[in-house]
Amino acid sequence: MSEILTSRQLALDALGDRAGNVTAHLDRLLGRAASPAEASLAWELALGVVRRRGTLDAVVKAFQKKPEMPAPRLLNSLRLGLYQLLFLDRIPDFAAVNETVELCPPETRGFVNGMLRSVQRSVSAVQHGQAASARDVLETEPGQFRRFDRPIFANPSERPAAYLAEACSLPEELAYRWFKAFGGLAKVLAVARHANARPPLVLRVDTELIGVQTVLGQLAALGVPAVAHANGYSVVVSGPLELEKLPAFGQGHAHPQDAMASSVIAACGDFLKPGMAALDLCAAPGTKTVQIARRLAGQGRIVAADVNPEKLARVQDNCRRCGIQIVQTVQAQELAGLEPESFDFVLVDAPCTNTGVLARRAEARWRFSRRSLEQAAFNQRQLVFLGANFVRPGGTLVYSTCSLEREENSGIIEDLISRRRDLRLLHSRGALPAGVQAPQAWSDGGFYAIIEKRKPR
């Protein structure tokens, strides 16, 4: 029988994943949690440390006497303790310190205890108001901050990218890109606040089948707080929810899907009509496949493709839950068997660097690099050119990502249009993340483009 682990032990073990896949590692470990409450706290601790890692490391550097960082497991222990001290008001300081010290080998406990208690003495209680961009100020939540008795971060006026990397927990390369692309510190701080927020669950409602108010009523009956989204067809859930207990989900009328993601198909209007043939090139988990099927009203044909059977199983499960029977799933290698120019509508929802959804994919920020960006853009270019080959003349190609990077978004489309004279850009939209302090306006960041394939003259 597996040893039962506390929330802090679970989080520490997950943070030690050699490939950096903390979420997947923690998911495998949760069966060893002592209780659902311990499992929930483990999620908060592990993902909180991943999200705030850059900031926590800046604190470690400011308080340790040696220039080199501690060994990996010891460093993760310090990060866990500091995250609790600085960001989790509901955990008493003494518990954060003592429980962290207990995680450590005896020979390191004095060091860990000393650093955590030094930080505890050196930082103010939570203060309310707009946080200043200063070396000694840590914004813990929008509208809340704490002040240290010493400088922690780089000088924002002299080294703004380094300040952003440390204060907002971003890779410095990404912080520099955003600083240049978005026009300065204030704009990047707004994006970073979103990246560091705890994202709500957003449900897209099939409003042709059920009303938003009906779903809100079902959530209220479960005691789950929620509000209608400003887009008119989504619901933002701000409390814990077991999806299987929500009737609208079980009936296939409500689907976890962010507002930016759902806006891609919503923007397609008359480009999707009953009876059409559609291809979803990167379909898993199937939320956009279902959205396309609703627009086709059960009439027509959808081919949903992805790279492996596990991903396609998720598409099949979603279609089954929604009672959709017009979807055929195929693995990517089977696409060669499809006829060119045989689809009225092709969606390329391309894998990307995920820089628009860092609130939901905390680990993605630490995978970002110039090389990963170049690789993503290369793959996206291959996918969108492949997708264009399957669009019939007069049909529609839609390209989308959840990235904020030009190389993955407008750059891909500009290259496509310049090389394919039979294609014409009809509409594109890029959006920064929004809604940190306004749940009804919560949206991840991303991009989409709607492209027409011209009929021959």
**Which stretches are poorly predicted, pLDDT < 50 over at least 5 residues?**
none
Q: If helices are DSSP runs of H or I spanning 4 or more residues, what is the number of helices?
A: 18
CATH topology of the largest domain: Rossmann fold
Gap from first CA to last CA: 71 Å
Tell me the strand order in the biggest sheet: 10-9-8-11-12-14-13
Radius of gyration computed on alpha carbons: 24 Å
Q: How many domain regions?
A: 3
CATH superfamily of the largest domain: Vaccinia Virus protein VP39
- State the CATH class of the largest domain: Alpha Beta
Account of the 3D structure:
There is one protein chain. The chain has 457 residues and is an alpha/beta fold. The protein folds into 3 domains: 116 residues, Orthogonal Bundle (N-utilizing Substance Protein B Homolog, Chain A); 69 residues, no CATH class; 197 residues, Vaccinia Virus protein VP39 (Rossmann fold, 3-Layer(aba) Sandwich). It is built from 18 helices and 14 strands. The strands form 3 sheets. The chain has a 7-stranded mixed sheet, with helices on both faces. A 4-stranded antiparallel sheet has the order 5-6-4-7. The protein has a 3-stranded antiparallel sheet with strand order 1-3-2, with no helix packed on it. Helix 15 links the parallel strand 9 and strand 10. Helix 1 runs antiparallel to helix 2, helix 5 packs antiparallel against helix 6 and helix 6 runs antiparallel to helix 7. The longest helix is centred in the last third of the chain and has 20 residues. The chain is globular, with a radius of gyration of 24 Å. The chain starts with 6 loop residues before the first helix and ends with a strand. The relative contact order is 0.08.
